[in-house]
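Backbone shape codes:
***
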Amino acid sequence: MKEIVSHEQVNDIVSNAIKVTLQHGLLTRNDQLLEKAKQNAELKVKGNRILPSGDLLYQCLDYLKNQSLPKPDKKGNHHGWPDMLTDFAHKSLLIRISDLPYQFFDAKKKQIIPLSREQVIEGTKFLHVLSCERGIKGYSCGVPQDTVAPLKAIEQYLIGYRYNINGGATIQSVDREVEREFHHIRCIAEERKDVNTRSLMLFSPSPMILDSDDLYLCFQQGVQVDAFMVGSMPMMGMTAPVDPVGAYILALAEVIGAAAILHAVFPEAAAYIYPHPQAMDLMTGQMAFGTREHARSK
């Protein structure tokens, strides 16, 4: 972001984001988080709203600025939410592939068609070839839609790991009923012995809400969270102002506030942010920036 606007403007954006968080705090429906927040002197709870102190927000901001690159596994792959990260020694062309697509558009038939298992496998094999021959990084070309909902993320992971040299991953939320089994699968595939540790990707809805399908894992008995990334995607004209700077401010307010709250409650876990405001003109693509370790910071 500093490459687009001046240093003074960046400071103004961050300062205004802090003001928004101080004024509004963040709403949550997670009762366990509310109880933990009540026990912390730097947090105030009003109903379902958690308000971090100014000191806590600025301490968290300093902490986030000093965050460093996470280490890959034994094979050099990054798994989980930092999966698409690439540490390049040279500034060469880089194309990153998103794992999010559920469907594609068939121009000849003029139809939107859900991705099948076979199509995801073929696309992921192609990514493997592109990785070897062209240095293009990705892991799975999408989420197979012809399987039962609780298993979609697991199948995506297995396809990516089986058919792509970069290792498999998914940033889809995994169903509670199969989360532990899925984590065991990942530990085997990634040669990790600790089956109780999690690195969480927590995407919250806008505006000013701290919630995620995976937030429950922070409070699950027997689970140790060693890192979490909080993200948000305010959409201009819907959950954000019709103003690019305003959308950036809201996105920063949401993720800095969420990171400060969670880091106060879980100080032993490393914290990262991923503000991801959505432009009103869809032809411009999504705006993304964040702590420097994250794959999609731009």
